[in-house]
Amino acid sequence: MEEAKKKRKLKKGPLIVLLLILILCCLGVGGYFLFVKADLFAPKTKTVVEKKKVEVQKEDVDYEAKVFMVGDALIHSSIYIDARQNDGSYDFKPMLQFIKPIASKYDIAYYNQETILGGANLGYSNYPRFNTPDACGDAFIDAGFNMVSLATNHTMDKGETGVLHSVEYWKSHPEVAASGQWASYEERAEKVAQVYEVNHIKYAFISYTIWTNGLETPYGKDYLNSVYTPEKAQADIASVRDKVDFVIVAMHWGTEYAWNVDWKQDEIANYLSGLGVDLIIGAHPHVVQTAEYINDGKTFVIYSLGNFISDQLDVDNYTGLAMEVTLRKHIGQDGTNLNQVVEPKAELIYTTVTQRRGWSSDFRVKTYPSLTDSELRNHDALYEKYKAIVNKRYPDLTWGLTWE
């Protein structure tokens, strides 16, 4: 009996082993299909969608912003008297009527507010301590200008009260990037590091002057006027450089009435370029100067745009420079960025006036190509004269604006 039981156990042994082998094989095959070949049973649309996403990400992308720049709004008493209406208000808009169709077409349109908008309570005034009606700013905004430099040698012409009025005026127009005057250190730090954006391009705008006409800002309040120092520029640019694609700096510098760039302009331009500034826009000489790329093409510099509108001296001061550049942001297939200031173009502008009994009136800013002989004699020859000055360091500069 015991012998029979042992034989039955021996017969069952191989069966149990075989059964275990079969179970293990089934588990192996099931796991293979579960974990390795699961995609055979997945919806095919998922793979197609993912493939399309990869293709989109590998395309090059370019963004562009067109920038238009003109020089100084140097508002002498003859200009604001010409703008005065019968009811006592001021209207400068007719003076810009030929420029508005050009400026309003650009993404960014810049000018330098040379004379402060200090408020009517301080009285409007002429050289040497100017004060200009707010309506001047209204006219430029109406014409499409949305970037303005406020740091000039005339910033303190009406003292702290004048600056604070100017600051409040520009605060009431948040659509305009205004730089160079602030009401506190906190406001200065905030505005210097402010990031503006157009067409997916982020940019910063900072304005400085190296001249103050001897009118120093009150002690402990140097936020009122943005006086340039290398240390200040370094700190300002460092606060925003990594946040934006382009840094634009307006510099009030140079020698008045000099067509040649002075050594200080060159020194500052190269220093700013080393800090990562992409575009430098110059003012103060009241005449046109040259433009060029520096630092292996990393920075484009316009040393002086001259006057945009003024009643100053002679034809050299009535003549100004209008310039256009393109801010181009290129995102490559590998995700790297290439940001460049490209395609600079130039045109000359001129302030036409009518002389009545020795008094200037009917101020209008026009482009040189639109002038008649009655408005400016020999304007073709004068065009070549000023063109040669602008081309001095960059003879390949293109003449004629895109939107004109």
Task: Throw out a few tags for this protein.
Purple Acid Phosphatase, chain A, domain 2, 11 helices, disordered N terminus, 6-stranded mixed β-sheet, 404 residues, alpha/beta, 9-stranded mixed β-sheet, 31% helix
Describe this structure in words.
By secondary structure, this protein is α/β, with parallel strands linked by helices. The chain has a single domain, classed as Purple Acid Phosphatase, chain A, domain 2 (4-Layer Sandwich). Helices cover 31% and strands 25% of the residues. The chain has helices spanning 2-36, 44-57, 77-83, 100-103, 134-142, 159-171, 185-192, 230-238, 263-274, 315-318, 379-390, and strands at 61-73, 108-112, 147-149, 177-179, 196-198, 201-209, 246-252, 279-283, 291-294, 299-302, 307-309, 319-331, 337-356, 359-367, 398-399. Strands 1, 2, 3, 4, 11, 12, 13, 14 and 15 form a 9-stranded mixed β-sheet that branches. Strands 5-6-7-8-10-9 form a 6-stranded mixed β-sheet, covered by helices on one side.
| Domain tally | 1
Mean pLDDT: 89
Helical fraction equals 25-40%
CATH architecture: 4-Layer Sandwich
- Class inferred from helices and paired strands: alpha/beta
Beta-strand share of residues:
25-35%
The CATH superfamily title: Metallo-dependent phosphatases
Rough shape? globular
Poorly predicted runs are 1-11, 31-54
Main β-sheet: number of strands, strand sense, barrel status? 9 strands, mixed
End-to-end separation in angstroms reads 117 Å
The CATH class assignment is Alpha Beta
Number of strands: 15
Q: What is the H/E order?
A: HHEHHEHEHEHEEHEHEEEEHEEEHE
The CATH topology label is Purple Acid Phosphatase, chain A, domain 2
Number of helices: 11
